[in-house]
Design brief:
Length: 186
């Protein structure tokens, strides 16, 4: 004796099927959001690390003076801008339009690296960008808004960069801090 499905059984089976499909859709959606969040976190971490590496590279070669011409390591040390000098071609002078003059600038939600006349963004989504200056005793020097004068810049023994990023897709910020000693200063 063959019996067909009643209308009630078809409706119940369809409702159960819709519930299962809805739950699967929710799980897949949540997994996609987690994946996007992890990707955004990784991108923010990579961006912060690359910015720190560029800062460290420039700080370590600041003051490079193979011809002993008296090249200063820094021409500018402000709370929001730091300019490194290096005689990379060993001609006894620093060319302001070349890589011998490199600045790092904390701007509105961005950290930029200015090489000669070319500005390159290092990090977007910046919530905190601070330069720190330390004297021979490790004490932090607080520059005025106009920056440290020549004597103050010569007193700097180490530099720090504090960088915190918060891209739009992240709930929690991602940051890095580094302190780098300047060349030939004790």
């Amino acid at each position: 004796m063959s019996r067909g499905a009643s209308l009630v059984e078809v409706i119940v089976a369809t409702a159960l099927g819709l519930v299962v499909v809805s739950l699967l859709t929710l799980v897949v959606g949540a997994g996609g959001r987690v994946l996007a969040s992890v990707g955004a976190r990784g991108e923010a971490e990579d961006t912060a690390q690359l910015a720190i590496e560029a800062f460290t590279f420039d700080a370590r070669r600041a003051g490079f003076d193979p011809s002993a011409a008296g090249i200063e390591a820094l021409s500018e040390a402000r709370p929001d801008r730091l300019t490194f000098l290096a005689d990379l071609d060993a001609n006894g002078t620093v060319d302001a339009t070349s890589e011998e003059t490199t600045a790092h600038v904390c701007g509105a939600a961005q950290l930029s690296r200015v090489i000669g006349r070319q500005s390159l963004p290092l990090a977007d989504g910046v919530t905190t960008c601070r330069f720190h200056y330390f004297d021979r005793d490790g004490r932090e020097m607080t520059p005025p808004p106009a920056g440290l004068d020549a004597a103050g810049r010569r007193a700097i023994r180490a530099l720090g960069l504090e960088l915190v990023l918060r891209p739009a897709r992240l709930r929690a910020p991602s940051g890095r801090t580094i302190v780098v000693a300047l060349r030939g200063r004790s």
